[in-house]
Design a protein that fits this description.
globular; SAP18; 159 residues; 18 kDa Sin3-associated polypeptide; single chain
Length: 159
């Protein structure tokens, strides 16, 4: 069997042929405060004001979505900017929405969630995406200090 070479090509189970499959509309709500919008902002047919509409596929990664947000938001291009992703979806048992964080990416740094796809996050077409953006100066220094002070104040109270 000399001269015979076997090549096995691995296909990701959630990959989509983007030439043949039509993209869907993903409604993305971007919060520049570093915190997700409140879930009540999504109830009763309402949505937050800061909406970005993206046509994409279920194999889109969190890093790919962050790149699209950075195209329209120059402030988010700074190295060290953190993107925290959450799915907002209707509760099947009640007429309200629920929110579930699905991952985080950081501009200029490789991370564990960069290649997580919408399919891997159990995204369903019709769900919303809520992205909280934190600039490096807001989460590197100030937020940790605030958390420590808050924690210490809580611990010093008599019970």
């Amino acid at each position: 069997m000399a001269g015979v070479e076997l090549v096995i090509e691995e296909k990701k189970e959630d990959s989509v042929d983007r030439q043949k499959v039509c993209p869907f509309l993903l409604r993305v709500f971007v919060s520049p405060t570093g915190h997700h919008y409140k879930i009540v902002d999504y109830n009763k047919g309402n949505t937050p004001q800061n909406e970005l509409q993206i046509y994409t596929w279920k194999d889109a990664t969190l890093n790919e979505l962050a790149l699209l947000v950075k195209e329209v938001n120059p402030e988010a291009r700074r190295k060290g900017t953190k993107f925290t992703f959450a799915l907002v979806y209707p509760d099947p048992r009640a007429p309200v929405y629920r929110m579930r964080e699905i991952g985080t990416t950081v501009t200029g740094q490789k991370g564990a969630d960069d290649l997580k796809s919408l399919a891997q996050a159990r995204f369903s077409i019709g769900d919303y995406m809520d992205i909280a953006i934190s600039t490096p100066d807001s989460w590197n220094s100030g937020s940790r200090k605030g958390f420590t002070q808050s924690y210490n104040n809580h611990r010093s109270r008599p019970y």
